[in-house]
Amino acid sequence: QKEVEQDPGPLSVPEGAIVSLNCTYSNSAFQYFMWYRQYSRKGPELLMYTYSSGNKEDGRFTAQVDKSSKYISLFIRDSQPSDSATYLCAFNTGGFKTIFGAGTRLFVKA
Amino acid sequence: GAVVSQHPSWVICKSGTSVKIECRSLDFQATTMFWYRQFPKQSLMLMATSNEGSKATYEQGVEKDKFLINHASLTLSTLTVTSAHPEDSSFYICSARDQGTNEKLFFGSGTQLSVL
Fold first, then answer.
1. pLDDT tens digits, residue range B43-75?
2. Beta carbons of A44 and B49 less than 8 Å apart
């Protein structure tokens, strides 16, 4: 079993749709949960960071963590063409290494 | 958020030459920086962990003599691709860990290397 599973997509949605991106993980030692957005040929940008179960909201973005199910999600409301990018989930135990998902490619059509 | 500057953004070189890529943390100190390689439509592949003042730690399968890493200060790490060959063509990205928040990584903008 992989430590982190993330569907690579691509996921295509119309502008204005609610997008749901998900990752599952197997390592119960993960304490920190992150989402990064990466535009083509650019470095990843930290979008959301959380360390507890529940929801965290920032503008149109909501990160959800369910530690009991080992499942995290990123929701994007009112999606825009500018949201088209690859979204990577990331996990850390509090140590040096961050483990990344494979990334989900999202396309938002105008 | 913290800013990591990576240069150059693009580099084209002839086979057999060496290429140096710089990664700087602009507004924070980073005792640890990471170097990744990314192929098209694939995720990040960790190459090595760069520690200020000590030798880098390379991931399995990464040639340390091929990819030289130097982390001479708390704000600068460099990756040198020595005797580059076409198969080294790739997108290279660095990241830095803010000492104050061990879990957060901040990334540079990446370097596209093309070896002719």
1. 899 999 998 888 899 999 999 999 999 988 889
2. no
The answer to whether the bond into A8 is cis (omega within 30° of 0) is no
Q: Which tokens in the block code for residue A102? A: 């494979």
Interface check for B91 against chain A (CB to CB < 8 A): the answer is yes
Contacts of B21 (CB under 8 A, 6+ apart): B6, B7, B8, B11, B78, B79, B80, B81, B92, B94, B111, B113
Across the interface, which of B41, B43, B112 has its CB nearest the CB of A88? B43
Cβ contact A35:A92 at 8 Å: no
Give the side-chain half-sphere CA count within 13 A for A94. Answer: 5
CA angle A63, A7, A97 (to 5 degrees): 65
Report pLDDT digits (tens) over A24-65. Answer: 999 999 999 999 999 998 999 999 999 889 999 999 999 999
Q: Return the number of CB contacts < 8 Å for A and B.
A: 55
Token readout for B12 is 């084209």
- Partner residue facing B43 (CB), from A32, A42, A101: A101
Name the minimum distance, in Å, from the CA of A1 to any CA of chain B. 18
Q: Does any CB of chain A come closer than 8 Å to the CB of residue B108?
A: yes
User: Quick check: A44 contacting B, CB < 8 Å?
Assistant: yes
